[in-house]
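Give me the fold.
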Amino acid sequence: MSSLKRFFKDTIIYGIAAVLPRAINIFLVKLHTSTLDAAKYAVNTDYYVYAAYLNALLTFGMETAFFRFFSKEKEKGKVLSTSFISLLISTLIFLCLALFFNNEIAVFFGFKTPLFFKLLVYTITLDTLVVVPFAYLRVTNKPVKFTAIKILNIGVFTILNVFFLWYVPHAIKNGIYLPEFIVNYYQEYPKVIHIFVAGTVASLSTFVLLFPAVFKFKFEFDFSLFKRMFQYSFPIMIGSLAFVTNENLDKLLLGSILGEKQMGIYAACYKLGVFMTLYIFAFRLGAEPFFFNNAHKKNAKETYARILNWFTIFGSFFMLFVVVFIDLFATILLGKSEYFEALSIVPIILLANLLLGIYNNLSVWYKLTDKTKYGMYFSILGALITIVFNLVMIPKIGFMASAWATLLAFGTMMMVSYFIGQKQYAIEYNLKKIVGYLVASTGFGYISFHVFRGQYWFSILTIVFFFGLIFFNEKKEIKQILKR
């Protein structure tokens, strides 16, 4: 099997692990928005923004460092155990400090109750402790097991969400019997807390399944190895924190400048842009170990160029598909009409996330040359653009400023990474095709959204035409891939 075909196969399996849980999460948006008003939905958004920051901080880039050192070190057991032990120690320290100062920290970050922050701490602790076991499944080519556990996680989360946000109030309203402790629990706390509890229980189920695997390898901490791994991972951690800022600070700023209702509306519509995020995440799950494991091959650069070309093709197609059917997706996923106010951000967010995906592809040059400091620089640059543009423009154009800031930040990161990367680790990307697909998809999407919006005959015609354009340009390579 060719390396490219193997990559596509693994990415499809990882895609299920990435897309299915997050697709279910998207469909849960309607349950959340129908249960919570925009202001309460903003509380849910705040919670997961802080979760993203803590996740980036506690994992401190060790996942990527694990892939890099596992692929080049002879004593792979030491890489595995050193990675896990380092995360275990730092996470336990965080857990103790966070619980000891729980009340003070909760007040500082504006949580409605200290219990919110305590649930966040438990969830992040459990999620951090399974980072290395999950990475090990990926690097040893066990995508099926990886996917099964991810699906179980979202299954538990979904069942608890549906039970507490739909079935319990339905049962209480219609006189259906429920144990008294469940009714008391439901009525004692605000509805949004049930979402947080569901997340903690889902993370616990994943931890229980993966933790026994930890005892299958020898516990051995190599300080010298850790020092080298940390030097590699630290810039990634800083870059991750800056990246989380790029993705999430807009929501916090909108809440403080325009109010929680406007932020809740923006955050709900932002979820429609998650379709592109799903695609990017699925791709990254398969791409990261693939890039490292194939770096030594003679035709590696040619393979990387072909992968970016196909990534752009599929990404452009997905972006166009969502935009031309945007009102249909909004009706299905958002429910309440009060959230439709911010639909105009969706095409911009989709394009921004596609450019981010291209940037992730381009990042292969600094990861393979061990110059991860550049990733940190690029992310910090994007974060500065996000902060300044939002602060200046939100008072003038509202939540549209946050969408344009996201596009500007990710677009700038992509361009700067490409030009510097070509000097450090030159790869002959097919820019003519890549730019052509981006321009075509963006152009058709713009016409559909602003001129033929809601006219589905035009939407279908546009999709068929774009698909034909792809087949015409790529038919030779499609035949080659299918023959192998």
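The radius of gyration is 23 Å.
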